[in-house]
Amino acid sequence: MPLTHFLALGTAVLLTATAPASAADVPKKTVVLVHGAFADGSSWSKVIPLLQAKGLNVVAVQNPLSSLAADVDATMRVIDAQPGPVILVGHSWAGVVISQAGVNDKVKALVYVAAFAPKGVSINELGKGQPPPWASALQPDSGGYLRLSAEGVAKYFAQDLPPAEIGVIAATQGPAFSGIFDEKLTAAAYETKPSWYIVARHDRMIPPAAEAAMAKAIGAKVTELPTSHVAMLAKPREVADVILAAVDSVK
C-alpha cells in the first residue's frame, strides 16, 4: 500500500475513534415505576404507553411487599440492569422504597405519586394515634399479609374509577406484609437528588395535607391533581407529564 494511502487510512481511523458519540450511541433514559401496597405493576398500565410514546425505556417493578429490604432489592436489580440514567417513580408505600433505592448512582431524579416520603419515622409512626379509616377494610391472612377488601378498594383506594377498573385493582392487588409499615429508612435519596411530588387532593388512603407536608419537607416540586389515591389511573396523562418533567431535567 502506498505511504499516502496508509496515512490517509490512519487519519480516517483516528477521526472515527475520536468523533463524539452520536445520539444513537447515548444510552436511553429509563423510567422505573414502583408500585405500592395493595397494588402491582399493572397500576402503571395507563402511564407506560404515554412514556414509551416519548421514546423512553420503561420498566415496572414487581415488589414482593414482604419487607422494605426485599422491595428495595427488587427495585435495585431493575435499576442496575438499565444501561443509562434512571428516573425512579414510586406510588404510595413505594415512596419509601424509592427513597432508599434511589441512592443508586444511576438514579438521577425521583417522582412521588401520592406517596410516603417519611423522614426518620415509619409509616405507622406518621399516623400514630390516628388509625386510618380504611383500616377496617383490611383482611389479614394466616401469614400476616394484608389485603384491602373489594369494598375498601372502591371506597378508599380508587373511588373515582369505573366499577370495572376497581374490580381489576381488587383482584390483582399484591398483599402487603403488615410489618413493612413499621420499617424506617436507613438512607434517603431525596436529600441529594431532585424530587417531584404529586398530591392527590381526594386521597382517602393518605391525607392530602400529609402528602403536601411530606413534599414540602423533602423540597419536592409539587403538582396537585383532583384524584383518588391512584392518580396514575385516574389522570394518567397528567401523571405522565410530571414524570416527563423529571426526565427532561436529566441531561
Question: Layout of helices and strands, plus pairs?
Answer:
Elements: H1 3-18, E1 30-34, H2 48-52, E2 57-61, H3 68-80, E3 86-91, H4 94-101, E4 107-113, H5 123-126, E5 138-140, E6 145-148, H6 150-157, H7 163-172, E7 176-177, E8 195-200, H8 208-217, E9 221-225, H9 231-234, H10 236-249
Parallel strand pairs: 1-2, 1-3, 3-4, 4-8, 8-9
Antiparallel strand pairs: 5-6, 6-7
Helix pairs in contact: 3-4
Could you characterize the architecture of this molecule?
- There is one protein chain.
- The protein is α/β, with parallel strands linked by helices and 251 residues long.
- Helix content is 37%, strand content 17%.
- Strands 2-1-3-4-8-9 form a 6-stranded parallel sheet, sandwiched between helices.
- β8, α8 (208-217) and β9 (221-225) form a beta-alpha-beta unit.
- The longest helix is centred in the first third of the chain and has 16 residues, at 3-18.
- The radius of gyration is 21 Å and the shape is globular.
- The relative contact order is 0.16.
Structural class: alpha/beta
- How many helical elements? 10
Average pLDDT across residues?
91
Radius of gyration: 21 Å
Largest sheet: 6 strands, parallel
The overall strand count is 9
